[in-house]
Amino acid sequence: MAVPAFLARERIVARPGFNRWLIPPAALAVHLCIGQAYATSVYKTALVSSFESSLTAIGIVFSIAIVMLGLSAALFGTWVDRNGPRAAMFTSACFWVSGFLVGSLGIATDQLWLLYLGYGVIGGIGLGIGYISPVSTLIKWFPDRPGLATGMAIMGFGGGALIATPLSRQLMSLYDPAYDGTAGTTPSGSAVSMLFLTLGLVYLVFMMFGAFIVRVPAEGWTPDGFDPSTIRSKALVTTNSVSAGNAIKTKQFWLLWVVLFCNVTAGIGILEQAAPMIQDFFREGDTSTVAATAAAGFVGVLSLFNMAGRFVWSSTSDFIGRKPIYMVYLGVGLVLYVALATVGSSATWLFVVLAALILSFYGGGFATIPAYLRDLFGTYQVGAIHGRLLTAWAAAGVAGPLIVNRVLDTQGTPGELVAADYRPALFIMVGLLAVGFVANLLVKPVDSKWHEPSTDAETRTTPERSAAR
Amino acid sequence: MSHPATSHDHGHHHGPGQTHDHGHGHDHGPGGTTHTPVGLIALAWTLVGVPLAYGLFQTVKTASSLFTG
Prior knowledge:
Number of domains of chain A: 2
CATH class of the largest domain in chain A: Mainly Alpha
Strand order of the largest sheet of chain A: 2-3
Number of strands of chain B: 3
Largest sheet of chain B: 2 strands, antiparallel
Distance between the termini of chain B: 35 Å
Low-confidence stretches of chain B: 1-8, 15-19
Shape of chain A: globular
Oligomer: heterodimer
Mean pLDDT of chain A: 89
Strand content of chain B: 5-15%
CATH superfamily of the largest domain in chain A: MFS general substrate transporter like domains
Radius of gyration of chain B: 19 Å
Structural class of chain A: mainly alpha
CATH topology of the largest domain in chain A: Growth Hormone, Chain: A
Distance between the termini of chain A: 22 Å
Helix content of chain B: 40-55%
Helix content of chain A: over 70%
């Protein structure tokens, strides 16, 4: 599918002398906007009340969006790699913003199906394309520090929720003076509709700014002082290329799929239940020693560690290697989970430290996977391969909450649960992390039969560039 | 983190380096080279940095209630 000339990859090839530090803010401009997907809880109750519906019916909106994220990233990954980051960011912005506008119309006219279609389906497609849009570009601009580069962008996805949550609260209190953002007050449906409209317009400007400034490096470009042979000498790192079509036929792709699935499911195990979980762990009789406001603070701490982990751990992987860092995420994560299940209820500070570290590994797992893929499959179609791998996220998004909610349902009634009731769910997560740990251990270099015939990956990545010359 | 605007980051080309940067806000020098204005880099980082700082501040404020509330 051809794109208009102003979006074409050959129009954004950087001239010599271009400063690559303009690329991370371009990526962040997109990821900070689409990260709003994790801030939906802020208006969930308002939507339940506005549609006179249930939490489950409203929760489906978010589930549809995450499933569409996985599907669109997998389906459009090759298109994104072929047409470049500007076309991808522009397309993502159109879908993401249209999703908000259609969703706003749905809320204003009291039609829930429009919210499903808008925010869920249309917005979800924008999420998937936007999530992978800057990844391969960043890896090409930062061959010396791919973990740092992708960590910065994917940190932005975590940061997006940090921005959207308080911003949404403030905007809704502006549109509905009866709502003051505190517990017990609920914004009106029209306030949420106006919020969607406002966010859509703000995100349009930001994402188009990212699409406007992004560039791809010219053929053969490398940063000054960078010696590709230093990369080649590292274990598991290839300078060969594997196509997305061939990558999914390799054992390595599916091992990484299992790694990502296990890591994300384990993280969701805590994220899903964070606020009630800390209260239940420190319940004495009918009351908890942890107040509701402190529980909200705990969710904030987890968000901070989730975001910081994306940047810190992914950057660290540039020095210690991708396989060892996943051994930390999964192996140390497993030990932390066991500690949480067994001694987590002995002190609040211990519970918070353990959960925060687990969430930092959850974030790190997301941010490091593109660099791991680059190491194993090369830069040729790393965006498309990443897109296909994100189906593991979509699957974990369904499995994680399902495991936790099912187990807790068998243990008792919400509001009466105690630490021991969480143990079965936590030990299931321990088992999953063990599976992920073994899968990571089994990762070996990709067999040469899957390598593309030519090793000049850049030439094949951008055929339009050759044609333009 | 490395400084976002060192000359080290402009890189170099190994191959036939005919490039096609049609962007705006760049000073085009002789021989098809470009210079990215430091102001543009600062503006870009500010545009993403300010909302992120706002989000971080608000979240730290909320998180602090875990220790005070």
